[in-house]
Amino acid sequence: MTIDIVVLPGDGIGPEVTDEAVRVLDWFVQHRAVPLRMQRRLFGSAAWAAERSTMPDATWNAIMAADALLFGATGSLDQTHIPPDERRKGSLLRIRKGLDAFANLRPVKAQPALAESSPFKARTVAGTDMVIVRELTAGMYFGTPRGVETQPDGTRRGVNTHSYTEAEIARAARFAFELARTRRGHVTSVDKANVMEAGRLWRDVVTEVHEAGYKDVTLEHMLADNCALQLGRAPTRFDVVVTDNLFGDLLSDCAGAINGSLGMLPSAALSAPREDGRRRALYEPVHGSAPDIAGKGIANPLGAILSAAMLLRWTANAPAEADALEAAVQAALDAGARTADIAMPGETVLSTRAMADAVIAA
Amino acid sequence: MTIDIVVLPGDGIGPEVTDEAVRVLDWFVQHRAVPLRMQRRLFGSAAWAAERSTMPDATWNAIMAADALLFGATGSLDQTHIPPDERRKGSLLRIRKGLDAFANLRPVKAQPALAESSPFKARTVAGTDMVIVRELTAGMYFGTPRGVETQPDGTRRGVNTHSYTEAEIARAARFAFELARTRRGHVTSVDKANVMEAGRLWRDVVTEVHEAGYKDVTLEHMLADNCALQLGRAPTRFDVVVTDNLFGDLLSDCAGAINGSLGMLPSAALSAPREDGRRRALYEPVHGSAPDIAGKGIANPLGAILSAAMLLRWTANAPAEADALEAAVQAALDAGARTADIAMPGETVLSTRAMADAVIAA
Ligand SMILES: CC(C)[C@H](C(=O)O)[C@@H](O)C(=O)O
Ligand SMILES: CC(C)[C@H](C(=O)O)[C@@H](O)C(=O)O
Question: Which residues are NAD(+)-binding (chains A, B) (predicted)?
Fold first, then answer.
C-alpha cells in the first residue's frame, strides 16, 4: 500500500527547505521501507512564472488525490504582478479549505540545546512542550460578507466576518481532547468570550463536548489576550491549546518566540478521517517564504524536516520512524549543529544542506 | 480652571489600586497645585450590589461631563448573577464608545530594576520603549451583525463582524504619526492584509495618511502574527505600533510579558479634541480585576499610578509633574520596592499601600 505524497515547494526558501525534507523522507523509504511515493508539483508564483497559472489543473487534481501534501512556503504580499483572481486560486487558504484540513497542529517544544539563543530565560521556557490546535477552515479567514465597499458618502469601509458553527467548533474540540489523551491530559481553550458572542459560543460548545465525553481530560478556558501573556510568562503550563483560526495564527507565533526562531517549528493540518479511516493532511513548516534569504542556501530546514516527522507519524503511521527522526534532530542540535537563525556569536554556521546532512548522519 | 476627574474604582483589585493612584494625585494637588477635582462613583458590580444598576444615571452623567476618568478594573466573566442587559449597560466597552475614546495608548518600557524577574533575557528587552496605539471604538468589538443564531438544522452559529471605515482608520493613524513625532519617529502599522480585506484597507489608509502629511516619520507595515513573534524576539525595534482593536488587545499583552507582570502597565484612551482643544480621556491600568487576590492589599498599584502619570501628562497638561511621577516610580523600583507579582525569591514584598508610600516618598 503506497502512500502518495504531493510535494509543493512553493516560493522563497520553500524549495530549498523542502528539498531537504524530501531527502530525509527518501532516507526512510530506502532504509526503513516506509512506502512513500513523492511527486513534485508547481504551485503559486513558480507555477505562474512557468505556466501563467498559480494552480495548474494537474496540481489541483494531484492535491485532491494525494494522501498528504508536503508544503514549503508561500509568498504573502509580493505577488502584485499576479492578477488577484489567480492569487486566490493558488492560495494556501484554498488548499486548506479544499482538503477540509480543519485541525492544524503546531507543536512547540523548548530545545535545551537552544537555551542560549532563545530570547527567554532558561527558567521560563525549560520543559515547554505544548501543541496548539488551531481550527483552520473557518472563522475570520473564510467568513462572509467580506470586502471593501464604498459608503454613501464616498469613503471606504472594510469588513470581514468571524463565523463559527457548532459543528466546526465541536470537531476542533474533539480533536484537542483526543490529542490530550495521548499527552498530559490537559486542554486550554482560548477565546474572547467576554467580548465576542461567537467566542461565547466557542466556550459553550467546547464545554459541552467536554461534558459529553472527555471528563478524564482537564479543561480550562482562557481569554486570548491573557493567553498571549501566559505564553510569554509561563509557557510550561500548557499542554494542548485549542483555539480559532485567527487567534491560533497569532498565538502560535507568540509561542514560536520560545526557541527564538520560527525556523524550527513544524505543523500538520489534518482533515476528518476518510472512509478508509485515514486523514488527508498538509504538512508545512510554520515559517514563511523569507524572500530576503531565499536562494542562499542558509535557511533552517528543521521546520520542514520536523514536518516530515509529523508526516511519518500521522500519515505513514510510522511512529517509531517519527520518533527516530525527532531524536536525530535533537542529536544534531545537541552536537552543536546550527543554521544562521539559531547560531550564537562564535558558533559555526551550517548551510541548509549541511544541517540536513547532520540530521541524516544522526 | 478646575479639571474634573471621575474615579471609577470598579471590581476586584480595582478599588485598592485606584485608592493609591488617587492618593498620589492628591499629593500633586496639594504640593504642586495641579487643579484636579476628583469624585468617586459607583459602577459595575459594586453599583449593582448597592443600587441594582451597573450604571446609575448619576455615574453616566458624571462620566459624560468629566474631563477624564480614572478607572480601576472590571470583572469579566464572573458577573453571572447580573442580568445580561445590565452587564452591557455597565460595561467598560460602553464607556469607551460613549467617550469616543478611539486612541488607546499602552506604553511598554523595560524596567532595568526588574530585569531579574522578567521572563526574558536582559539582552532581549533592555532598552525597550514603545507605545502601542490601539484603536478602541471600532473593529470586532463593535461590529454588527453579531450574536448567536439557530440555523435551519437546529444547530447554533456564532458571528461577529470586524468593520473599519476609512475615517476610523485615518484618525488612529494620524494619532500614531503625531505621537511618533514626539518620540523616535517610527511607526509600525499592524494588520492581516494577506488574509483580511479590512486589513488591506487598514494598510492602504495608513499609507495614504503617511503620504499626505507625515513623510518625516518612517512607516513600516507588519503582519499581526509576525508582530506577535517580533514582540518576543526583538521588542527594542518598536517605537509606535498602531493597530486595530482586537489585535491591539492581544499584542499589548504580548508586550506586557516584558516586565513579567501586567501590574506595571498603564494606559490612556483619548477622544478627538473637543471644541476647547482638550481630549476626553479614560485612564486605566492594563491589568484586570484579579479576583483571586482582591481585598488582600497585595496588588501592584504601579499600573494605576503610572496611569495617573498619563493623566497628568495628557489631561492636566502637566508634563513636568508626569515626568516627576514616572521618575519616582523608577526610583522606588531602583531602591528595591517590590510587590508580590514582581518580587524574586528572597526579596521583601511590599503591600499595595507600602508600594505607593515608596513612590510618594521618592
Ligand atoms: C501565510 C498566511 C496566509 C498564513 C496564515 O495566516 O494562516 C500563515 O501566517 C500561517 O500561520 O500559516
Ligand atoms: C476587559 C476587556 C473587555 C478588555 C478588552 O478586551 O479590551 C481588556 O482585555 C483590555 O485589554 O482592556
Answer: 288-300
Q: Give the distance from residue B165's alpha carbon to the nearest chain A alpha carbon, in angstroms.
A: 4
Interface check B197 vs A, CB under 8 A: yes
Return the C-alpha cell found at A358: 547532520
Of B193, B196, B257, the CB nearest to A77: B193
Q: Is A202 on the interface with B (CB under 8 A)?
A: yes
**pLDDT above 90 (res B90):** no
B200 is written with which cell numbers?
488591506
Between 2.40.160.10, 3.40.50.620, 3.10.25.10, 3.40.718.10, what CATH number should domain B1-109+265-362 receive? 3.40.718.10
Chain A residues whose CB is inside 8 A of the B250 CB are 224-225, 228, 247, 250-251
Topology of domain A118-259 in CATH is: Isopropylmalate Dehydrogenase (3.40.718)
All CATH 3.40.718.10 domain ranges in chain B, comma separated: 1-109+265-362, 118-259
Closest atom of ligand 1 to CA, residue A249: 11
B42-72 pLDDT tens trace: 988 888 888 999 999 999 999 999 999 999 9
Buried b (16+ CB within 10 A) or exposed e, B224-254: bbbbbbbbbbebeebbbbbbbbbbbbbbbbb
| CB contact at 8 A, B132 and B243 | yes
pTM over 0.90: yes
Flag if A201 and B148 touch (Cβ within 8 Å).
yes
Residue nearest to atom 7 of ligand 1 (CA): A249
Tell me the per-residue pLDDT of B240-287, one tens digit each, with 9 for 90 and over: 999 999 999 999 999 999 888 888 999 999 999 988 888 999 999 999
